[in-house]
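WARN no homologs supplied; continuing
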Amino acid sequence: MKRLLLWAFALPAAIMGGPVQAQAYPAKPVRFIVTYPPGGSSEIMARVIGQQLTDYWGQPVLVEPRPGADGAIGMEYAMKQPADGYTFLLGNFGPVVAKPLLAKVAYDWKRDFVPVSRITYAANILVVPDTMPVGNVKQLVALAKARPGELTYGTSGPGSMSHFSGEMFKRLAGVNMIGVNYKGNAQAITELMGGQITTMFSDALPAIQGLKTGRIRGLAVTSETRWRFTPELPTLAEEGIRGFAAVNWWGILFPAGVARPIVDKVNADLVKALATQQVRTRLADLGVEAISSTPEQFGAFMASETARWGKLIQEAGLKVQ
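OK structure emitted
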């Protein structure tokens, strides 16, 4: 009888444990791991989101860059943290999807992380030096076909969206162009301005800044629809490259094992934060669009990205150089 009574008291406590745990969360500072160096768009993005969550929670959200190995170091570090909800990760296309497809890594997002929500996305912009004798994508394709193996496209590194966009362009346009990898978008766009490379699928913000100088020319955006930051530029699909769609994206993940009530609480607060005008405006300053999702939607999205780009990698025989 004593055991039965203890069980009867314990059962409601167990049932209520999840909601109570979520209500008490967070009771101390939360660490926000970023896989890229301080001062970059990812860290700034994390600080914008982190400040809003700090305001909601009354507990500081501490942004902690863990750069290196194209984001793999930060991913591996984050997956090893306790599953108590007090460490989460800013994941994005490169280290979450591309890196594991191109090289052996110690992590697998399906096994080692819990999706919380997508938070932002951004188109890349196809740009050329102002000295290039092309004014649109059709002319670029014609020039590339007339000079096979001569035109180059810069990338911000192997496995970056600029790299994958270039490979997708080559396959869908039926052209032979040479990829040139740089250590970051800034270096590549500087080389493009100087004419050392002939094209690039640049991140939005540095491309927009470069367009203002008049030293580079924008031809198209990589998104399925026109990008609100550059409405004058057509999509690649509009320019005849059918089936082209490639956008960079970022989202929040927990280490595997974090309790679902905590995941749901953070998701709800992220959705609220991303709907505020202040956050949306500050993210727009980085050239990214705010977006939110359920954990299931984010997981399904990452799975579709893994399958889609895995197919391209296999067909193109891509490897880390």
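DSSP finds twelve helices and ten strands in the chain.
OK
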